[in-house]
Amino acid sequence: MAVTHPQAPQLTASSFARLVARAPAMAFLIGTFGGAWLLWGYWISAMPPGGLEMSPAFLVSAILGGLAPSLAAIAVAWALGGRAGIARLLAPLVRWRIQPFWYVVALLTAPAVTLVTVALQAVVIGGSRFADIGALLPVLLIWPMMAALGEEIGWRGFLLPRLQPRFGILPTALVIGAIWGVWHLPAHYIALKAYGDWFIPAFLVNGPIVLTAHAIIMSWLWNRSGGNLILMVLYHFTITASAMIAPSGFTDGAVGVLAAAIAAGGFWVVAIGLLVWRRTDFIPAASARASASSA
Q: Whose CA is closest to 75, among 34, 117, 111?
């Protein structure tokens, strides 16, 4: 008599969709962290004592890892609603009709704060922290835009609208800021390994601390603009471009951490200022009314 063995259950498209539907935010985070950390983690294990060289393979891995939040969001949106789900996810990315003031806020906030913190660093620490723009010019437009599009469809386009109705505006901003910062851990380890014993404080300041301030500012901008994803991409673009032109940690060790803390402090001044000056904007009902009047 033939003996039959039960077959292992296969993960079909419909079963995958049901699995994702149970916890869409968790599915997004698993894809976001899993995709990026696998790619970036390989280079940590392969990194020589003197640090990594910018090889083509490393650059491809860095780029693909940076796209993980948006790719994960698109995958989850497809699992939940197919092409229509992807269309709904990307719809805020083409809502360009909005008061010009909000474009000014999105494009100038990070550069203005960076200029102020550069001046403060010159007074407190001394020295110049501006990079050679000529050498950066070939990648100055491409890399920041890739980083912005690779992340913001995920962080603000997918995760924020799913968490905010449940937890509120400020708690959601704080949670996303912390997650956003921790997500950068492998990339920051590669970039900040030279800090040695100062790596942990350098990572915290350059990662979760400053990105939580950015998350508060961006949450305010998102809600006041009626959920405009273009503004999120533009703001993120300016974060990366400003960091490339004027790196916060322009030296290693304690001095580098102090420089980064001054830079992060500038954005926390803006974030706290919004929480105090525009505190009603962080109340969902009031924020909804304000966004309707500003669109």
A: 34
273 in any annotated domain: yes
Give residue 114's Cα distance to chain centre: 18
Measure the CA–CA gap between 8 and 11, rounded to whole angstroms.
10
Q: How far apart are the first and last CA of the chain?
A: 73
Q: Count the domains in the chain.
A: 1
Is 28 among the domain residues? no
Contact 127, 242 (CB under 8 A): no
- Across all residues in the chain, what is the average pLDDT? 87
Q: Does residue 160 fall inside a structural domain?
A: yes
Residue 229 in domain = yes
CB 223 within 8 A of CB 130: no
Query: In which domain, by residue range, is 218 found?
Result: 96-294
Q: From 146, 142, 172, select the one nearest 158 (Cα to Cα).
A: 172
For the chain, list the strands marked E by DSSP.
none
Q: Exposed (0-12), middle (13-18) or buried (19+): which is 6, by Cβ within 10 Å?
A: exposed
Helix (H) / strand (E) element for 35: namely helix 24-45
Per-residue pLDDT tens digits for 101-151: 999 999 999 999 999 999 998 898 886 676 666 666 677 878 899 999 999
- Structural contact between residues 227 and 98, judged by C-beta atoms closer than 8 angstroms: no
> What letter would DSSP give residue 92?
G
pLDDT tens string 46-97: 665 556 566 777 778 888 999 999 999 999 999 999 999 999 999 999 988 9
| Cα Rg, the chain, nearest whole Å | 21
**What is the value of pTM for the model shown?**
0.89
